[in-house]
Amino acid sequence: MREQGAQGGHPRAARASDAHAEGALCGTPAAAALHLARTVARRAERVMVALAQDSAEHVNREGIKYINRVSDLLFVAARAVNDNGNADVLWVPGKNR
User: Fold this and answer.
1) What is the pLDDT of residue 87?
2) Is residue 59 assigned to a domain?
């Protein structure tokens, strides 16, 4: 499902897919909060997908699509508050200390 998310037709979506492939981004406190919210949304999506695999559980497929789109929106919003991605800082473990 993640593959189709960045292709949402929004003008910033194409640039967002490039940054998404690079790794975790940070920058302003607002962007950091949006990335944290995105992490929570992605975790919820993984749980929903796992539950959908269980025949005893009923998970609305539209709900899975919706939470995926919420994650995409949060990613694009984080880039937007970072000067439309120009102020993004790529987080590399151990390097940005």
Assistant:
1) 64
2) yes
